[in-house]
Amino acid sequence: MSDNARMKNNPYQVLGPTVPALLGRRDLTARVRAHLDKERPEHVSVMGPALYGKSVLLQEIARIYAEDQPGYLGAAYFDLRRRTPLTDDELRERFAEKLAAAVEKSWPEGSELLRFDDVEITERLGLVARELAQTDDAVLMVMDGFDDVLANPGITSEIWDGLLRIASEPVLRYVTGSRLPLRELCRTEESRTSDFWEIFHDAPVIVGCLDDSDWEAFLEPFSREGVPLDKAARQRLQYWTGSIPILLTALLQSTWEWAEPGAKVSGEDVDRLAERLMQRRRQLLAALWEECTAEMKTDLADLTRGELRVRAVPESRLRRLERRGFVRREGKRIVSACGLVERFVERESAGVSSLQRVFGDAELFQQNVRMLLEVRLAQVPVADPTLHGYVEQAIRHLQPEPRHSTVWVRSIADRALDLIWEQELRDGVTLPESWIIAWQRAGIQHLPDDGHGRVPSERGRQLRLLRYATGLSLIHISEPTRPTT
Known about the structure:
Helicase, Ruva Protein, domain 3; Rossmann fold; Arc Repressor Mutant, subunit A; 4 domains; five-stranded parallel sheet; three-stranded antiparallel sheet; 23 helices; 8 strands
């Protein structure tokens, strides 16, 4: 087979525009299905860091339940990271689209009703929920990328309460995917207090590095092609990747492109390919590194400089490092579990060490934070000398008593507002007539001006004006009339 043909047929996909097919993960799949197939099915959240295969798992779950599973009319995979909804209505519309597609084959009438534009979207969802409640079947909604939508302040508790009402019928089953617990992701307190988050099983399904049972599925394409990997090759794959899915996939992808049919892959071959991967796919390692907290980075950096004892790392943090495939325990010692990550951290540890020396505890932080801010301010171009001077004074007065710095914060805010009106308004005072008209059409009862179409003198009212002018208020101004601030 030519090199081009082998690359075209490569079964190992690293990132890309589409979600790759699932390899292995039988135990994780079974754990999710155990919740959904109970006599009284449960909603379940799937949680784990980026690049560990949450989306691959979730898409497979949706595929399974879209194909005539007992108790289910269909399933939909809803990726909230793509065209992320910005408002409750956008999320309802997208949700209805996915629900309509999920029941299109099994219940075409319901699918058509969800697309009936003459009926308000909330009413459509309610009608379909009531109709579904007359059957013994449910629809599975797999909602991935919850991190993105929950971080949006335009999504309120109203939408979650609505989904809760539908789930109480019960006609829908929810599976969600996120990096953190759902309630912690809510940007607003209002969303955080919704009872929607209480319907999920209290123990999320955690996605981390691969289990031993996953390896055969990852290596099966080589067996099928007649390219055996000897015992040493498998050991070196384990050493270099730590069973981290994206690193194993990347290394197997390179191995697939390099190997010839019938040729045995040795441990030395894997070592050479891993060394090459260190140079060519460094961005994968950098992405894994950036997903770590500062404390985890410090632990990994300490590990490259010498022995790290189990008692030196809090248990919860050590478990996170283990789940990610970075380390493992050997008695009372912590040792590296991934050669690629270890080599990467060796290069990064100098910077981490410097940060620890400068900011490693509260006292060091207090001593050095002012100098850090002064250095950073010196790198910023001086667009307005007055504003620059206020910021400089605020930094200078951080010590010895930080509250003295807050005096200058007011000056910074005042000057920033002045600069905004000077930039956005022709004379720095008079509001454009198009803004006033747009606000009136939006139904705003009390316009945020001074009563004569000008900027009010009170700073509090100016902040209200700024919220309306930039579209950050609860009433959304149409995009063409929104100023450029």
